Amino acid sequence: MLVEKEKVEKAIKKAVEEAKQRKFVETVDMAVNLKNVDMKRPENRIDAVVVLPHGIGKPRKVAVFAKGETALKAKEAGAHVISPEEIGELAKNKRNARKIAREYDFFIAEAPLMPEIGKRLGPVLGPRGKMPQPIPPLSNPAPVIERLRKSVKIRTKDKPTFHAPIGGRNMEPGKMAENALEIFKIIENKYENPVQSIKSIYVKTTMGPAVRVI
Question: What is the pTM of this model?
Fold first, then answer.
């Protein structure tokens, strides 16, 4: 195992204890700094969606590009629905497109809509790592929506570092530590020698001091 759960949990407890109380529930974030990895090579970059066992304390926001029955089921599952007609409208209004991209954590789309989305909204969604996950037409999007509500996106781009939320300050440190271990699995599966690929790991609340894990 890359890092023992007890070590992560201890660092999370310290980060929460040392952070001042705020008028809102702060997110607890983890920063992972890599080493001995050439990020100029695309195959060394991480780009993954990780389902956290305990979520981050509040459901992630999901939007679905769909019509008909799929759109109805997406609404029933509590997702925001974007109709095929709205794709063109968003493409014409870049400000609204950027707002949607910021507002939602994940996007899903019926597969036949993907070429249009890529062409019209790819320049907005692509650089943010938010291109939709395709699903078969007429399928029930609810299971995918539920999974994404407990997920985080991990992306390194060309820098040897990434950040990820692992919970809310009001969550149990043990559960946040288990979330962190799930993210570590991505590193373990990605690199041949994961221990030698880690420079440092820190945890902190949104506005609190950083505490080193390793």
Answer: 0.92
Q: For residues 18 and 192, give the distance between their C-alpha atoms in angstroms, rounded to a whole number.
A: 36
Residues 128-168: tens digit of each pLDDT: 999 999 999 999 999 999 999 999 999 998 899 999 999 99
CATH ID of 62-148, from 3.60.15.10, 3.40.50.790, 3.20.20.70, 3.30.200.20: 3.40.50.790
Of 167, 178, 155, 187, nearest to 47 (Cα)?
Answer: 155
Which residues are paired to 212 by β-bridges?
A: 202
Give the CA radius of gyration of the chain.
Answer: 19
Q: Domain 5-57+151-212 falls in which CATH fold?
A: Ribulose 1,5 Bisphosphate Carboxylase/Oxygenase (3.30.190)
Q: What pLDDT, in 10s, does the model give residues 30-68?
A: 999 999 999 999 999 999 999 999 999 999 999 999 999
**Residue 113: CB partners within 8 Å, gap ≥ 6?**
65, 66, 84, 87
